[in-house]
Every structure is written in C-alpha cells, then in structure tokens.
Design brief:
With 355 residues, the protein is α/β, with parallel strands linked by helices. Helix content is 34%, strand content 25%. The structure holds nicotinamide-adenine-dinucleotide (NAD).
Length: 355
C-alpha cells in the first residue's frame, strides 16, 4: 500500500515562508512525503503568487475557512507574531500538528493556551527555532551533553546589529510584534543558549530596553533600507539583560537592531569549570597539563537549520516522535522575555515562576 502523504498548509506566506519554509515543503513533496494542499495570506495576490510558485492546490485569504474546507496533518504558521497564538490554537483544534515561527507568541499566557490546545487535541506543537538545527549548534550540544564543560555556571547571548531594522512587515509596531530586537532576534540566541545548557529553569530576570534610533528621521539604516514609517516605530532597538536560573546559573544578554558599534556580532558562549564553548568563533576552550587548549571543528556537514527543522518536524509527525523544541521550553523563553520587558518598565528584577 502506498505511504500516506502528510497534508500540509502554510498560513502567512510572506518573506520567511517564501525564503525558508515553502522551498523545504516543496522538497519534501518531491520526495513523496507531503502534499502542499493550501496556502493562506490576508493579502490575496501574495497568496496566489506563492500558491503558483510552490504548487499549492488551494488558496485562501481566511485561515478559518481554510481549516474548515480541508483536513490538514500539518499547519505551518508564518504570520506576524500577533497572529501566532490564535492561528496555532485554531489549527490544533482542527486536528493539525503545528510548527509556528518564532517567537512562540506575544506573551506567556498565549503560550500556555497554545500548549493547552496541543495537549487537549493530542497534537504536536513546535516553535521553529532553526538555530538548534544548525550543524555548529548540534556539534556543541553533543560536546556539552558528553560532559566536556563540567559544571556550567554562566552564559552569554549576543545579537548586535550596527544598523539592521527590518523595513518590511510589521516588526517595528508593538501591537503586531510585541517588541523589537529582544523578541525578534534575542529569542534565537536566548533559546540556543538555554538549550545548550540543558534547559535550566529561569527564576528571575532584569533588563532595560531602549528606543534610540528607530523613530528618528535622521536614522541611517544602511543596507537594510528605509521603507517603514518612522512615526509607527514604537518598539525598542536595543536591550541588555541579566537572567538567573536554577543551579546558580546566570546569563547575560545584549541585542540590537541599531547601535553605534564597529561590526555586527552574534553568538552564544557558555562557561563551565572544565571548559567553555562559543559559537562564533566555533570552539571549545579548556586546559590540560597546565596549559590552555582550544579545540576547533574544522569540518561539519553543511546543512541549513531551516531545512532541518522542517524535516525534523515532518519526521516527528510521520513517526510519532517527540519534537526537539519542546513547547514548554519555548514558554520559558517567553517568560524570560516578558520578565525583561517588565523589569525595564519597573526598574527592578522580576521573579519567574517556571513550570
Ligand atoms: N526564523 C527566522 O529566522 C525568521 C526570520 C524572519 C521572520 N521570522 C518570523 O516569521 C514571522 C513572519 O515574518 P516575515 O518576515 O515573513 O513577515 P512578513 O510580513 O513578510 O510575512 C507575514 C505574512 O503574514 C500575512 N498575514 C498576516 N496576518 C495573517 C492572517 N491572519 N492570516 C494569513 N496571513 C496573514 C501577511 O500578509 C504577510 O504576508 C514573524 O513571526 C517573524 O518573527 C522568523
């Protein structure tokens, strides 16, 4: 008997869907593992353009109608942050497994409701944290899980752009996205650092967010262009934070869309009492026989994290396996982000009740 193909639908077919999701669904379709049934976007031309480009059978502008008209095994949510929770919950209720773009949602209450819907409907839910699927991250995870760092006590998560405010979409509008670089790119390095450390539970966070450039008419956004309306910009463009975890682990964090620095830099570093790691440059830093040692990983399989996350999620559905990015872990990342924004407003450390 022919193997059943998973029926896939993609909701919100903007930049990330076009660049990183739909090509990978198309590849899986060519392998005979999935069928791209429907795409949906509130911008009708966009939905039609993407359906034609990737061969979707049906086109929708209303996700509720899309979920009512056809049965889907997998729904891939690639809308702006504001729509992640309602679309994910509706899709889970309609019986689909859901992969949703980062950040999981606009706040931890929404994340909890998404997890509840996944549990009630016995469906899988995973946030598309592609960095966990990059070859460098997988190598470091292997090294850390083998105990090479000893006792882990501190980490740093950095994602600093000199000038790089997204000009497309609605990243710069708080009611659409919640915040700026903290939730947009900070979520990537924060999630990666916590996962590499073995997912310790957060207990408190403090931080400050700043809006220094994004609403200024004299902003030079360099190669990222100028299309958004300065008057709409009401999120931060820089944040720094300090997070405490169980087992006396701490994490420092710095993120920006715009800052007066020499070069863009991003990455995660983790300190243990036997060795430390960093993602950029990729390495393991230790000591032996009273000298310092550096281990480099000169070759790793070339693979795209975006491609691997979609293949992984498909395999989890096909074989009923647990997903790598557990929704409870994404909830804790969101709790930290919520706490940093609150700390910035109140100028005080905010306790986190991690579940
Ligand atoms: N993983 C990554 O590296 C990465 C990179 C960029 C963006 N993202 C995330 O992906 C999401 C989308 O970002 P983007 O850059 O593609 O933005 P985008 O604005 O290019 O695309 C979003 C699309 O969703 C559509 N949309 C909005 N509401 C909808 C609804 N109710 N139903 C159907 N369609 C709807 C919009 O019309 C638009 O076409 C964001 O959450 C963002 O954080 C992730």
């Amino acid at each position: 008997m022919a193997k059943m193909k998973l029926r896939v639908g993609v909701i919100g077919v903007g930049a990330i869907a076009d660049e990183k999701h739909l090509p990978n669904w198309q590849e899986l379709e060519a392998e005979g593992r999935v069928e791209l049934i429907g795409v949906c976007d509130i911008v009708s031309e966009r939905a039609h353009e993407m359906a034609a480009k990737y061969g979707a059978r049906v086109v929708h502008t209303d996700y509720k109608k899309m979920l009512a008209d056809d049965k889907y095994d997998i729904i891939d949510v690639c809308t702006q942050n504001r729509h992640h929770a309602p679309i994910t919950i509706a899709s889970l209720k309609a019986g689909a497994h859901v992969i949703v773009e980062k950040p999981m949602a606009m706040n931890s209450a929404e994340c909890r409701a998404m997890i509840q819907a996944a549990e009630t409907n016995k469906r899988k839910l995973m946030v598309a944290q592609f960095m966990r699927f990059e070859p460098d991250s997988e190598k470091l995870k292997e090294v850390i899980d083998a105990g090479r760092l000893g006792t882990i006590y501190s980490a740093n998560a950095t994602y600093l752009r000199r000038r790089g405010i997204p000009g497309w979409g609605k990243f710069h509008i708080a009611k659409e996205s919640l915040g700026g670089p903290l939730i947009d790119i900070g979520v990537h390095v924060l999630d990666l650092a916590i996962w590499l450390m073995g997912c310790p539970k957060p207990i408190a966070a403090s931080g400050k967010v700043y809006r220094m450039f994004g609403d200024r008419e004299d902003l030079c956004n360099a190669e990222w262009g100028e299309p958004y309306d300065r008057k709409e910009f009401d999120v931060e463009d820089y944040a720094s934070a300090y997070v405490r975890f169980e087992r006396d682990i701490t994490l420092t964090m710095e993120v920006s869309w715009a800052a007066n620095i020499e070069n863009e830099r991003s990455g995660v570093s983790i300190l243990g009492d036997k060795a430390g790691i960093s993602t950029s440059p990729l390495g393991l830093y230790g000591y032996e026989n009273r000298s310092l040692t550096t281990t480099r990983f000169d070759w790793l399989p070339p693979q795209s994290g975006h491609r691997m996350e979609i293949r992984h999620f498909t395999e989890c559905v096909e074989r009923n396996r647990p997903v790598r990015v557990k929704p409870e872990e994404s909830l804790r990342v969101q709790q930290i982000i919520d706490a940093i924004y609150e700390s910035s407003r109140t100028n005080a450390e905010v306790p986190i009740k991690a579940t």
